[in-house]
């Protein structure tokens, strides 16, 4: 049986751990946080739902004791500061980079074979940092952002079309940022038929725009970052890995020429299985989409350049 660790017991981390426990993806889920008693309290609260909801996963909360995470198969990193109203993901880089690097270093002491799912923002840059700092094979470092952005895309498509989001297929690629993500409206389908058959250009443009500011919209409404959809998106990535489902999910991974980019982690459709991400799917972008992807890469690369000033 598998063991999964979630680092960071805030709203996103706790929701992710709760989803994983309820799905019984692992024999043990460890929730770790730096705040004394916080992860223990969250884990105990979750476990008190087991008898009501009918799940039987061992759930352990710990305060900064990485030895309890030993032999984890998958580690989800959610730790770091959440966004506040008016704050961009990019502004978080100075604080969260040090946190993410420390977490990766500590996890690898006890779980050298773990696959990492990065949720902390700015997600593409944190994924790149985790890869470079760890020296791990590229397939074992996965940024979650595209899974969340694609879910938001399908949410707004379903509202515009008044159909079930479960009947929609749509992907968001590029950076996990308000100005860098690319909802692929041309390729979105409803039960196999293009959504362009049902929505006019103005409506599709609005759907794409709403998707791009989906996180910021919730931050403005809630006063902090969202957690239900990020927790569910994290679950979807972990589940495809643990169950070797071979699902195609947009994720931030290291590119070496794919989509015209190299030495960068950026959102592209990948097959997820037991070894991490297994291959990148080529969506054959048109010229306009490829130009947007290149522009997105430039913006993410500028954020990555900040890492060189932090002496990490």
From TrEMBL:
Entry's EC annotation: 1.1.1.37
Signal peptide segment: none
Source organism, top-level taxon: Bacteria
Swiss-Prot/TrEMBL catalytic activity: (S)-malate + NAD(+) = oxaloacetate + NADH + H(+)
GO terms for biological process, alphabetical: lactate metabolic process; tricarboxylic acid cycle
Ligand binding (NAD(+)): 8-13, 33, 96, 119-121
Annotated GO MF terms: L-lactate dehydrogenase (NAD+) activity; L-malate dehydrogenase (NAD+) activity
Residues annotated as catalytic: 176
Entry-linked SUPFAM superfamilies: LDH C-terminal domain-like (SSF56327), NAD(P)-binding Rossmann-fold domains (SSF51735)
Keyword Cell membrane (UniProt): no
A Pfam family this chain is assigned to: Ldh_1_N
Keyword vocabulary terms for this entry: NAD, Oxidoreductase, Tricarboxylic acid cycle
Residues of the Lactate/malate dehydrogenase N-terminal domain: 3-143
Keyword NADP carried by entry: no
Database matches in InterPro entries: L-lactate/malate_DH (IPR001557), Lactate/malate_DH_C (IPR022383), Lactate/malate_DH_N (IPR001236), Lactate_DH/Glyco_Ohase_4_C (IPR015955), Malate_DH_type3 (IPR011275), NAD(P)-bd_dom_sf (IPR036291)
Leading EC class: oxidoreductase
Domain Lactate/malate dehydrogenase C-terminal: 148-302
Alphabetized HAMAP family for the sequence: Malate_dehydrog_3
Family: Belongs to the LDH/MDH superfamily. MDH type 3 family.
Function comment: Catalyzes the reversible oxidation of malate to oxaloacetate.
Alphabetized NCBIfam families for the sequence: MalateDH_bact, PRK06223.1
Name this protein carries in UniProt: Malate dehydrogenase
Species of origin: Arcicella rosea
